[in-house]
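Continuing the series of single-chain predictions for the mutant panel. This is the parent chain; the variants come on the following pages.
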Amino acid sequence: MKPTAPLSKFLPYQLSITSNAVSGRIAQEYRQHFGLSVPEWRVMAVLGDSGALTQRDLTQRTLMDKVAVNRACKVLEERGLAVRTPNEEDGRSHHLDLTEAGHAMHDQIMPLARDMEQRVFAGFSPEELAQFRSLLDRVRAQVKDLDSDAIDSGNFGVS
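Parent structure:
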């Protein structure tokens, strides 16, 4: 089957490389100033916003692979930035939460993250940013609603 459009015009590819470019640039800041990888920062950001969560919850909220979440959690624990506590509702799992040091680092990083966001989107109007956020929300919702059985059957996109 011959492709109908070059890869550079394929929107999922464009989303992926754009995300990688932005994440890579931000990762330089986190690594340089705080010694954090992107997965470690994502886990910290979610915990900073949400409070204690299980690794399963973190995997769902970050959309990262469970192995990457597990590694990030272990590193954060080893550095004293996060702590595990037993999950009262499910004895097989634990909650992970930021320690005092983790909250302090999170509070230092957030202004840098907001500054980076402003720099990345400096050429966008408030209306464009609102539309961009809305479009991203719609794409995420659409992806979530895709019928995985149709994809697995090999009939994806075929009526």
